[in-house]
Amino acid sequence: MDIARLAMDTNVTDLADFVDSHPAIPEKSVTERRRFRTIWISDIHLGTRGCNAEMLIDFLDHVDSEMLYLVGDIIDGWRLKKKFYWPAAHNDIVWRLLKRSKRGTRVIYIPGNHDEVFRQFSGLDFGGVQIRRKAIHETADGRRLLVLHGDEFDAITLAHTWLAHIGDAAYTGLMALNRWVNAFRRHFHMPYWSLSKHAKAKVKNAVEFISNYEEIVAQAAGARGVDGVVCGHIHTAEHRLINGVEYWNDGDWVEGCTALVEHFDGRMEVLHWADEIAVRALVASAAPESAPAAALAA
Asked: 0.85 exceeded by the pTM?
């Protein structure tokens, strides 16, 4: 299915047909999904080879929530304009997101700069997905959080679009190298590791940019009278208290593979899904060894 065309000229009937179809990767039958009050995810970049689709599908098959925020750059229109790339796994992600809405999850989609074409539909609902420019989320313990993608505060994106596109091309090359590195690691049964995330942590200018960005976003949120802000855009999951304002970044599903969640008591945390999968694999590998011992003990 051409999801770009679907998004532009579909109607409710088309979306209903799509939701009622069957994904290429069936939903996992998980005995007990982890339930949260709210989930925030962003920067999936569907339509690119860098999208970690299988890991996101695993995440969606293991968690549930009353609310789901899609905080921008869900579809990468920049890359799709240059070369169309849309494997079945990317359709499966869209299917799972729409399925959640049909099952009763409130889904709010806040487009980013890579999927800015959807900003023209702000205020409308498509298949139960509410498209908004930004949102105010109230946590279970009464805090008010501004939710937005965050490119509004990126000086490079705002003032030098051409430079942002050059940076995007360089980033795409780095992610291609990242895929080769992790293919090698999988061959030797090593866990997922992000080359680009490691590089950003080591490069001084990148660290300074991220820190400045976080402070600017927190300052803007404070000026709006809210308690905190949730954003994406820079592919760096983080929680900081900046001048009394809570700054949360939910990360991405290209390099970090992270999500921000709110528990039913209002407590919030960032989930690093590669670590979650590693723990699950460790428990599964230990289970056959512990079973005989338990039988003998009985």
From this structure: no
